[in-house]
Design goal:
With 385 residues, this protein is α/β, with parallel strands linked by helices. It has two domains: 83 residues, Urease, subunit C, domain 1, CATH 2.30.40.10; 286 residues, TIM Barrel (Alpha-Beta Barrel). It is 25% helix and 29% strand. It is built from ten helices and 21 strands. Strands 1, 2, 3, 4, 5, 19, 20 and 21 form an eight-stranded mixed β-sheet that branches. A hairpin with a 2-residue loop joins strand 1 and strand 2.
Length: 385
């Protein structure tokens, strides 16, 4: 038997190591049919030297491949974004539309609905980061579009054709009653871009908010007498925290503190990726201004951080190398925990019989060698033999 054989969405691969989301297996063969894993068994012949893991799941993707979702919310943009991030192990993402007009939000919802109906590989829902945010903590979100929740936005949020729905809100600008209304509409409510005090944050959690968007960044800090959003995020045992581990958005000590404070399973990797990911672009237009790239740092013309050029594979490597997190836990932060946060861990985030054959093959340095979505190759360094 060869180390790998496949035909469209049916095939098999034999690997030296396989991480199923819980444990490591050695010298095994994984098979799939019609994009679904059918079994894992001892390998009978040659195996690939790499490690096979579940594909990465990214909750916050603004762009990639030279395109930004807000700027061109169309199917071509989604295809380019998905292809760009597939090179870095991402097999499922929430395209993210940041604070903008109702018309742009509507276009974003329309195109995600089209993508899901057409089964565009990698697109599983939509993240609305805004527009119901706090102006003092807006970051690079355009203040002219920050606004209260109205019936116009709610009509978009109530749609049932856009897959998994996540929204980031500032709890000082969205009431507990509105958060409850959003959750009843099928939205996953996360908190961020907020200057709220701890009491307001706790009320939002009690009303149904489930997580925190890019922990530490653009949120009220932890201080001795006012814990702020950061303090509540770190001490609440039931909520999830997305974290941008690119070496720019937070100090390694702050990241280690968060990992130590938060219960295991509640911290997950996100990229907050912008258009330059997967390109050599050094700047791009952004709401009438521009964002400049210096190395792996993106800032607007005033020097404020403006998203990232982070990819999920780099985030996994940083977690292992800079934060001394065990590889299996770093992989869970990119796979299982995002799936659990999104409520889709019954089919995503693990390599098990009955799960989707969304998989990434990594070398010893956790560089992506091959990537599959539903058993179909979407990226490869070289063909598997």
């Amino acid at each position: 038997m060869t180390a790998a054989k496949q035909n469209l969405t049916t095939g098999s691969i034999a690997v030296a190591r396989l991480f199923d989301g819980d444990t490591w297996h050695y010298n095994v063969e994984l098979s799939w049919q019609q994009g679904i894993i059918t079994g894992i068994r001892p390998a009978a012949g040659a195996v690939h030297a790499g490690a096979l893991a579940s594909g990465f799941i990214d909750l916050q993707v603004n762009g990639g491949g030279g395109v930004l979702f807000n700027t061109a919310p169309d199917l071509a943009t989604l295809q380019i974004m998905a292809k760009a991030h597939a090179c870095f192990g991402t097999t499922a993402m929430l395209p993210t539309v940041i604070t903008d007009s109702v018309s742009v939000m509507q276009q974003a919802a329309d195109v995600v609905a089209q993508a899901i109906a057409a089964k565009l590989p990698g697109i599983i829902g939509l993240h609305f980061e805004g527009p119901h945010l706090s102006v003092p903590k807006k970051g690079v979100h355009p203040a002219c579009h920050i606004r209260p929740l109205t019936d116009s936005e709610m009509a978009i949020y109530q749609r049932n054709d856009i897959g998994i729905k996540l929204i980031t809100v500032a709890p000082e600008n969205v009431t507990p009653a509105q958060i409850k209304q959003l959750t009843e509409a099928g939205m996953q409510v996360w908190l961020g871009h907020s200057d709220a005090d701890a009491a307001t944050v706790e009320l939002a959690l009690a009303a149904g908010a489930r997580g925190f968007t890019h922990l530490y960044n653009a949120m009220s800090p932890l201080t001795s007498r006012e814990p702020g959003m950061v303090g509540v995020a770190l001490t609440d045992a039931d909520s999830w925290c997305g974290i941008i581990l690119d070496g720019q958005h937070l100090h390694p000590i702050a990241a280690k503190l968060a990992l130590a404070a938060k219960p295991k399973g509640k911290m997950l990797l996100v990229t907050d990726a912008m258009s330059p990911v997967g390109t050599t672009d050094c700047e791009f237009a952004f709401f009438g201004g521009k964002v400049i790239r210096q190395g792996n740092k993106l800032t607007n013309e005033t020097g404020a951080l403006a998203g990232s050029v982070l990819d999920m594979a780099s985030a996994v490597r940083y977690t292992i190398q800079a934060l001394a997190v065990e590889p299996d836990e770093a992989l869970r932060m990119a796979t299982l925990y995002p799936a659990e946060a999104l409520g889709c861990a019954d089919r995503y985030g693990r390599l098990r019989q009955g799960y989707r054959a969304d998989m990434v093959l990594l070398d010893e340095q956790f560089q992506v060698q091959h990537n599959w979505i539903a058993g179909s190759t979407v990226y490869q360094v070289r063909p598997l033999e």
